[in-house]
Structure formats: structure tokens, C-alpha cells
Specification:
The complex is a heterodimer.
Chain A (H helix, E strand, L loop, with lengths): L12 H9 L8 H16 L8
Chain B lengths: L1 H10 L7 H28 L2 H17 L3 H13 L6 H4 L1 H5 L4 H22 L5 E4 L2 E4 L5 H5 L2 H8 L2 H17 L3 H10 L12 H15 L2 H5 L1 E5 L9 E5 L5 H6 L4 H11 L3 H8 L9 H4 L6 H6 L9 H17 L7 H8 L3 H5 L1
Helix pairs in contact in B: 1-2, 2-3, 3-4, 3-7, 7-9, 10-11, 11-12, 15-16, 16-19
Classes of the chains: A mainly alpha, B mainly alpha.
């Protein structure tokens, strides 16, 4: 891998959504967080293998 | 993302498992890892050490991307055992003797360590145990790389303004996550007009955090105008005089209408409307205000910004308590004596609450 290749930062809303989902006090936010978390995971799934040079 | 999806769905009932999706992800991951394995085997057979190291890095990066923490940490351990530290290019004497500038080296260092911290950021690894020479330290926040790397020095010596500003944002967030609101707030305020770290958080979130941190960290007069003398990271550096303000900053004025509760908080604290300030802040004091009879659950900073935030949630009670103390101090310092009635009327709370 070339030294200059800067790896993209992952979608950091994923751990935020996971945090919301794991907190029972934030139940009113769970539906949106669940939807966003699944969408984030699906979006990262289609990531191409740029690491292979 | 197969391993990550699996870990999320198996840990609890927070996300239902879609078996088709998981199978699809696992198949894609397996195929990719097979290619990386072939590349590694080929490198081991016919190529040199740097190619093997590259192949290992590629595998580590892919494992990071799909959230396979266990295998990534195993691979990192394996690489270290075989003298192929993922960050070796920076620490090796060979790298230091090159004609590279420090900025370039810092950039490489950043690049090579990124798999580790990307993984830790994603996994919220507050308790990641990092051992060196048999010692095990418990690192309190996911921003482990800030503690581990000499990035401050490297960027100080050769980084450009963009990297300096990014580092201010990263360090500021790190300080907020360890309850150092004053230090974090100063760094965020410095980066306010030149914010570029959109990979970490959105601009509105950044302004929100800056306001939250500085409302607690700055004195009332400093909220409007502040002239500070400080040195960035090292005492030997020449001190800088920075003119910065919070309330009149155009960046803040632009964003605050979108976050009304935050605007109410700062404005009411500055204009000494403590009853409204308490309502905007939320927390225990709110249930003692007459407003609760009209609107049972008003939007408050605590409910909308502190408790739902992964970064600020552990400090929500601390923050609301400190803000209340700030308001009490601000009022009480203005008078020699104050009756209980006028105090209650200023804060919009009952006598019992103040007495307690």
C-alpha cells in the first residue's frame, strides 16, 4: 500500500446510533437510530477494496 | 461489515438479524480476505519484507473496514511479534534520516496508525487495554491515538494550518470526553472560524459542542469578547494573543437559530434571565419551575444534547450541576445580600428547592 493513501474515516454515526439504541432512556430515538444504523452498515458493506494496491 | 453486523445483532436485541444480509456480507468479506491471503502468500514466497508488511497492512485495513476487531488485533499482535509494526516507518531510524519533512512523516504516522484508531472509534473502546512493556493502561476515551502518538510535536514542527486546526478539533473533543470542558472549549473556539474536520463531526454539531463547552468554561464577560494569551502545546513556544468571542461570532450566530435551546441557554445566561436559563438547561431544577405545569416536557439541553450524545452523556449530570452553580455564582456575586424570595423569583424555583 502506498504511504500517501489516506484511508477514509468510517461513518462515525454508526457508534452514535449504537449508543442511542443501547440506552433504554432514549427509547423515543430508537426507531430512527435503528434505521440509520442499518443503513450505515449497508452503505459500508458496498465499500470497494481500495486497500489492495 | 459482516463481523460488525454480527456483533451488533448478537449482542442484544437492539437490531434484528437479517440472515440473508449477513450471508451476503460474509460471502463478500470471505472473497476479499481470500484475495488478501493470496497476496500475502505470494509476498511471503517470492517478495521481500516490505511487500509482506504491505500485504499485512492491507489485510489489517480491510479487517478494520469490516469491523473485525478480534482478527485485527490478532494480526496487529502477529505483525509486532515479527518486527513489522504497522507504524514502524515513523519510528525506524531509517525514516528519520530521510529527507522527508516532519509533516510528511506525521502524515505517514497518521496513515499507518489509522486502522487502530478507526477501529477503536467505531467500537467505542473506552476500556481498550493498551500494554507497553508489561504495563496495562486503561484509556478512558476512544481517541487513543492522541495519547499514544507524538502527533502534537510532529504537527507543531512541520504541519500545515489545516492539520493544526484538525488536531485542535480532535484534541478538543478528547478533552470534552474526559470532562475538561475549559481546555476543550478553548481549542474548539480557536478552530471555530477554520473548521475543516468534517470527517469527525458535522459543522452544526461542532458549533453546538463549542457553545456547550465554552458556556461553562468562559466567564460572563468573556462570552461576548475574549482576548486570550496562550501557547498551543508547549511552553517554549511563543505565546499567541487570540481575539475570539462566542456570542457575536458569525459562525455561532449562523448555527444557533437551528439549535434554539442552545441559543436560549447562552442568551439567558448572558442577559441574567436565570429562570429561562434553568428551563433551557433542564435537569433536576426544571421540575421545580412553574413552566412544568404548562409544558410538562419542554426541550432542554440535557434532553436534546447531553444525554443522547455518546461524548457528553457520561458528563450530563456534572454539566448541569456546574452550570447551575455558575448561574448562582453569577447572581450572588452581584449583591452583598439577597433574600430567599428574590433568589427564588430570579431562578423561577420554589423556596424548598433553594433551601435544599
Amino acid at each position: 500500500m502506498a504511504d500517501e493513501v489516506v484511508l477514509p474515516i468510517p461513518n462515525l454515526t454508526i457508534p452514535q446510533n449504537l449508543f442511542v439504541l443501547s440506552n433504554p432512556a432514549l427509547e423515543h430515538l430508537h426507531d430512527n437510530a435503528r434505521k440509520d444504523l442499518l443503513e450505515g452498515i449497508k452503505a459500508d458493506r458496498t465499500y470497494s477494496s481500495i486497500y489492495i494496491t | 461489515m459482516g463481523p460488525y453486523y454480527k456483533s451488533v445483532t448478537s449482542a442484544s436485541n437492539i437490531l434484528p438479524l437479517d440472515k440473508t444480509l449477513l450471508a451476503e456480507m460474509e460471502a463478500a468479506n470471505e472473497e476479499e480476505l481470500k484475495k488478501l491471503d493470496e497476496r500475502l502468500a505470494e509476498a511471503e514466497k517470492i517478495e521481500g519484507e516490505s511487500e509482506i508488511s504491505d500485504a499485512l497492512k492491507a489485510r489489517a485495513n480491510y479487517l478494520t473496514r469490516i469491523g473485525d476487531k478480534v482478527h485485527f488485533l490478532c494480526l496487529q499482535h502477529f505483525a509486532r511479534l515479527h518486527g513489522m509494526n504497522l507504524g514502524a516507518i515513523v519510528t525506524s531510524p531509517k525514516a528519520r534520516t530521510r529527507k522527508d519533512t516532519w509533516a510528511r512523516v506525521a502524515h505517514r504516522h497518521h496513515t499507518h496508525y489509522r486502522p487502530t484508531w478507526i477501529l477503536l472509534l467505531r467500537h467505542s473502546d473506552r476500556d481498550h487495554q493498551h500494554g507497553q512493556g508489561g504495563k496495562v493502561r486503561r484509556l478512558p476515551v476512544p481517541f487513543v491515538f492522541l495519547v499514544d502518538l507524538p502527533l502534537h510535536r510532529l504537527i507543531d514542527e512541520g504541519g500545515d494550518w489545516d492539520r493544526r486546526n484538525r488536531l485542535k478539533v480532535y484534541t478538543g473533543l478528547h478533552f470534552l470526553s474526559i470532562r475538561q470542558f475549559k481546555r476543550g472549549g478553548e481549542l474548539l473556539l480557536d478552530a471555530l472560524s477554520t473548521f475543516t474536520a468534517t470527517e469527525l463531526l458535522s459543522y452544526n454539531e461542532f458549533v453546538g459542542l463549542t457553545v456547550i463547552a465554552n458556556t461553562l468554561g468562559l466567564k460572563r464577560v468573556d462570552l461576548k469578547k475574549k482576548v486570550r494569551t496562550f501557547s498551543i502545546f508547549y511552553s517554549h513556544m511563543p505565546a499567541l494573543r487570540v481575539h475570539s468571542q462566542l456570542i457575536n461570532a458569525p459562525e455561532v450566530n449562523q448555527v444557533l437559530p437551528e439549535i434554539p435551546v442552545l441559543g436560549d441557554l447562552v442568551k439567558n445566561l448572558y442577559e441574567c434571565h436565570y429562570d429561562k436559563f434553568f428551563v433551557a438547561l433542564g435537569g433536576e431544577s426544571l421540575i421545580h419551575t412553574p413552566l412544568m405545569l404548562i409544558i410538562p416536557f419542554p426541550a432542554t439541553l440535557e434532553q436534546t444534547h447531553l444525554i443522547p450524545s455518546r461524548l457528553l452523556s457520561p458528563h450530563a449530570r456534572f454539566y448541569t450541576r456546574e452550570m447551575r452553580i455558575l448561574a448562582y455564582t453569577q447572581l450572588l456575586e452581584s449583591y452583598r445580600s439577597l433574600t430567599l424570595d428574590s433568589l427564588c423569583s430570579a431562578f423561577g424555583v420554589g423556596k424548598n428547592w433553594v433551601d435544599a
